[in-house]
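Every protein is a chain of amino acids, and every chain bends into a shape of its own. The fold becomes a row of whole numbers, each drawn from a learned catalogue of backbone shapes. The protein below has been through that process, and both of its lines are reproduced in full.
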Amino acid sequence: MKDYQQCTHCILDTNDDPSILFDQNGICNYCNNYKIKFIDNAPSSEENKTRLETALKEIKAAGKGKKYDSIMGLSGGVDSSYLAFKAKEWGLNPLLVHFDNGWNSELAVKNIEGIINKTGFDLYTYVVDWEEFKDLQLSYIKASVLDWEIPTDHGFFAMLHQQAGKHNIRHILTGHNHQTEAILPKTMRWSKMDTANIIDIHNKFGKIKLRTFPMMNFFQYIYLQKVKKISRVNLLEFIDYNKDEAKALIIKEFDWRDYGGKHYESIFTRFYQGYVLKEKFGFDKRKAHLSNLICSGQISREQALQEIATPPYDPQQLADDREYVIKKLEWNEVEFNKMMNTAPVSHLHYKSYETGLYRQHEKFMQRIKPITRIIKKLVG
């Protein structure tokens, strides 16, 4: 077992990822990889400008004659809200999609309303059957696996692709960006596309058949990508994205109000990330987010250390959320405490694409990459 060590550049350590590596200066592999990929080999501002113009031209051309030229998920968080503003500014006309899993805070609903009113974009809200979704979430909790966010993230992801296919939309706009989201150790998450994991966990612990929960298996995903030509476009990668500046802008333009944490627009996410992930699994996800901001030059290491030293939760908010979550899931204190004291179980304890078809496909795609590049050049 490794001796404890913390990165001298960011705030990740051997507790966050036991396989973390450090160079002779004590800088971790996450920081070094970020530097190589996003700083040393980053496109110039002119190159990014060209990439953005090319992407926008392609999106508009693919949407010509259609009601929508693109589609994007809207959670009400900073990234998606800012992307909605930029999409309007860039002259795009996306269909906005919201996945309502029953955990939206009132503030999130108001923020989404403000965005719709200001941009004039159409919004499609999919309200998943609560009894089904609750049964799936409880299955993950009873399985004692790490990533309780998979039901929401997978459902949202699947719904976006299903709506893109339905409306013949080729481009899914995402708010993903390396400035705030490039660093997240695998120890703190699991694949959102692991449908085999979802099905097996629910089969073992669920009681209700999933009829309305949107799910997308590996083959459906490949079909939508390769046959329907649906692709994800991370437009925020092409601009100088600054979290604080983005937040200030959407506050001004949308009368947007802050949630106090990344993805805290959902009550369940706030409770899971702010309390359960730390107390049951031993991870403070803020360390990854803050380390990312250090690497992108948006905060200093000293600022990150000061923030991580503060509690992730306001005590009264935690008490209120705890009571709310237990009641909404129809639990009781005894069941909740038993769950918190149950030892974590690896996702690999259940069926998973990570040990089968998914990994084989990933290896195959890596091997044929040089060939596909040549074919693309020949085709033009």
User: Anything to note?
Assistant: The chain has one domain: 45-282+314-363.
